[in-house]
UniProtKB/TrEMBL annotation, chains A, B:
<dbReference type="Pfam" id="PF01769">
    <property type="entry name" value="MgtE"/>
</dbReference>
<protein>
    <recommendedName>
        <fullName>Magnesium transporter MgtE</fullName>
    </recommendedName>
</protein>
<feature type="domain" description="CBS">
    <location>
        <begin position="223"/>
        <end position="280"/>
    </location>
</feature>
<keyword id="KW-0472">Membrane</keyword>
<dbReference type="Pfam" id="PF03448">
    <property type="entry name" value="MgtE_N"/>
</dbReference>
<feature type="transmembrane region" description="Helical">
    <location>
        <begin position="445"/>
        <end position="468"/>
    </location>
</feature>
<dbReference type="Pfam" id="PF00571">
    <property type="entry name" value="CBS"/>
</dbReference>
<dbReference type="InterPro" id="IPR036739">
    <property type="entry name" value="SLC41_membr_dom_sf"/>
</dbReference>
<feature type="region of interest" description="Disordered">
    <location>
        <begin position="1"/>
        <end position="26"/>
    </location>
</feature>
<keyword id="KW-0479">Metal-binding</keyword>
<dbReference type="InterPro" id="IPR000644">
    <property type="entry name" value="CBS_dom"/>
</dbReference>
<dbReference type="InterPro" id="IPR006668">
    <property type="entry name" value="Mg_transptr_MgtE_intracell_dom"/>
</dbReference>
<keyword id="KW-1003">Cell membrane</keyword>
<feature type="transmembrane region" description="Helical">
    <location>
        <begin position="380"/>
        <end position="402"/>
    </location>
</feature>
<keyword id="KW-0812">Transmembrane</keyword>
<dbReference type="InterPro" id="IPR046342">
    <property type="entry name" value="CBS_dom_sf"/>
</dbReference>
<keyword id="KW-1133">Transmembrane helix</keyword>
Length: 469, 469
């Protein structure tokens, strides 16, 4: 970091904190002071400390408290929790907070939120709780939220906000400006004015920048953007995030089955979805439940992890059954027991490499019908070449180590077979899961390593018992 | 998908394609037609097919061609490649395309690009090629690009565009609107007017929406947004993406060491960086080079993957050395060879689970000094409980399978030891790497599985030779 000149305004404290070592996090001292204030049950101090903080940072503070501290915190600060803070808190923890909050605080918080945030808040609630929150909204907002909830989970309909700024297609810039100045319901953030025909079909949009730069007499039609595209209200949220990223959209009008405008999705929501989908992919590839968070309790963590460990135990036992078939061979040549994990481990790693590239390519829609056979062929060739390379290396190692040229040949051949199979399994298994409608990130890893363990042990020990005994 | 009503405009074809099965991808038939046109060397047909497509989709088409087809494609369509298409193509392939393009086409393409895209294009080029492209720019753009290149790679300075819309802090809405109408250099997309003091320090910003909705006489000062925060030109691009995501920013002014405004970063760039960083994390966790792409050739793929397979071979051999120590024991109790991979595999999986959660928490800055010991403690407890649970299951399995209660006890104890160590390794290794300034995603996996293999084999075989022999 470079030296800062003195900053002549009241943001000095915040700015200088921002420029320190980990400049985008609240300072550790501040977090300690917050902890101390909670312990001392000093509500005034807590208020003073949290007052300058961004809602997202306050949400992080709340997430990082342990359950007992969190209850104490709500006792001291609950009255200050607003819609913005609530929208920022992780879902699992938010549900706890909501139960602790006084009903009237919750009602106030919800009234401040955008319709898409309210939907996000209540979509997983039970009917009575949901009703309670809906009843806090005024009629118009409640209708918008209920409409949104009528669309499938993870659809564009759940992501969108219903407040859209529109203008008839024949308007001029001047008419639009006059209209905007006289409206007081405008959304917090909007980036386009959507042009609609008389039946409320969106037919184009104009960026606010162009609107500002144009003469009052210019027809909106002349300022339309090329990037315009609509999203179906039933589109999957992952696909929505994909088109925002692919086409660099800032906002996209959402249309119903009759192509009528029903809402708008903005890039910040698309960015959140993209972030969540990535997170899910990473966690699923590692065999961890996709709701895992660093703030989970021990019990929650066990619940997220035990299922995949159990699956792994079963597949590991299956691989061991293969070894058991060759017990006699191992007893005669113990070197096999020493070397066999190497063959399995190399296969597992090579398979995971291919698998990961395939899962990501499927997620980013870059592995499609048009290139799938080219990619499969490439992976097979790569697998074979990797196998040959490591067969030579490992053959030499085994030869020197155990002084047996047949053993060296056996491990070399087993290596080629296993790495070639690993590559094929790494690409074909995720493709098959995708074809079957499953998430390729979810179960591929286990399938692939089961294949490489079984094939690795079988090829190596089978060959050995044929050649060496 | 629901039924669509007829769409009465010229976008019918594109829209109906969008609503088909995989509605956000170009239709497979179209891709086949493009392939056919390339093969027939039919430039006119190729032009007709590509004309309605978005630059990002044309870039995808180019990426998915094999090298020979790509050369043919450039021969037919090279003259149409513009700045937008170039910015969308993957870096490795873009470099090939640039070499094939006629110099004047390249110069035209570069002149159309925003300064941040030009920087992205040329930052990895050698000096002579870089000079050639710079010389195609007009003096102002060239200066902006050179200024940006003077900042470190992966810094905010490289991400930002230098075109910023500013207004003196004392202006009214009316003055600002008149100013904007008289400027013809405005950026393609902008979302805020940045308020600056006479020394060009940014002191706030106003969204275009508020500007449009306000009366002409309103001072800009009254419309300032709370969300305002600046980014240092030296900030790491990953940190920039983090603050956009954390604070829901749409654009952020970039300041130099003297806090003077030098550019602006917009959310679409932050979204790209977030996407790339995730991709990098996933690939690194799988031991694949972070530049891997589905379009790589066999040689490129081998180059990305062999290094980590080689590292894995070394660690697998280390684990085998542990087994070799106990060769005599295995010869006497072959069941050990059958069961030992299960202990190692369970440890590897449990360690990878913990590791992945830790790496993600570090990347999202949710694992910090204030909660690190709580998390380490939780992981240790989870590891112990997982170990106990699977010790019981595996003990029972071993007992029935090999009819030996001592063997069951040995595998049970080894399981507890290995899963507890796996959990500690899974959290402590990424923390140590982060502390040492390395990317925890990069090497953690190998370290963790080495630990779990070595500990697994040692605990199981060591105990067995003490108890069973």
């Amino acid at each position: 970091m470079t030296e800062q000149s003195p900053i002549p305004d009241d943001q000095t404290a915040e700015k200088s904190a921002e420029r320190e070592e980990d400049e985008y996090l609240p300072r550790p001292e501040l977090l300690q002071q917050i902890d101390a204030a909670i312990e001392a049950e000093d509500a005034a101090e807590l208020n003073t400390l949290l007052e300058p903080m961004h809602a997202a940072d306050i949400a992080d503070v709340i997430e990082n408290l342990d359950p007992a501290e969190r209850r104490a915190f709500i006792g001291l600060y609950g009255g200050e929790i607003d819609g913005e803070i609530l929208s920022e808190i992780d879902e699992a923890i938010r549900d706890q907070i909501i139960e602790m909050l006084p009903r009237e605080v919750l009602a106030d918080a919800v009234r401040e939120m955008d319709s898409d945030d309210v939907v996000d808040l209540i979509e997983d609630m039970d009917e009575p709780e949901r009703e309670e929150i809906l009843s806090a909204l005024d009629a118009g907002d409640r209708a918008a939220v209920q409409q949104s909830l009528a669309y499938p989970e993870y659809s564009a309909g759940r992501m969108m906000q219903s407040e859209v700024v529109t203008a008839p297609e024949h308007w001029t810039v001047g008419e639009t400006l006059d209209f905007l100045r006289n409206e007081d319901w405008l959304p917090e953030q909007f980036y386009h004015v959507v042009l609609v025909d008389p039946r409320r079909h969106p037919i184009g949009y104009v960026t606010l920048g162009r609107l500002l730069a144009a003469k009052r007499s210019t027809p909106l039609k002349e300022l339309e953007e090329d990037s315009f595209r609509t999203v179906s209200v039933y589109a999957d949220e992952g696909d929505v995030a994909y088109i925002f990223n692919q086409y660099h959209l800032i906002s996209a009008p959402v249309v119903d089955g009759d192509d009528r405008l029903v809402g708008v999705i903005t890039i910040d929501d698309a960015m959140s979805v993209l972030d969540e989908e990535h997170e899910e992919d990473i966690l699923r590839l590692a065999g961890v439940g996709e709701d895992s968070a660093i703030t989970d309790t021990v019990m929650e963590t066990l619940r997220q992890r035990i299922p995949w460990l159990a699956v792994n135990l079963v597949t590991a036992i299956v691989a061991s059954l293969v070894i058991a078939v060759f017990e006699n061979t191992i007893q005669q040549v113990v070197a096999l027991a020493v070397l066999m994990p190497i063959v399995a481990s190399m296969g597992g790693n090579a398979g995971t490499q291919t698998l990961t590239v395939a899962v990501r390519a499927l997620a980013t829609k870059s592995l499609t019908g048009s290139n799938v056979w080219r990619v499969v062929r490439r992976e097979a060739v790569v697998g074979l070449l990797n196998g040959l390379a490591f067969a030579v290396v490992m053959g030499v190692v085994a030869w020197f180590w155990f002084d047996g040229v047949s053993l060296a040949a056996v491990i070399g051949i087993a290596m080629v077979v296993n790495l070639a199979i690993a590559a094929l399994a790494g690409i074909l298994i995720p493709l098959a899961l995708e074809k079957a409608g499953a998430d390729p990130a979810l179960a591929s890893g286990t399938f692939v390593t089961t294949v490489t363990d079984v094939v690795g042990f079988f090829a190596f020990l089978g060959l050995a018992s044929a050649v060496l005994i």
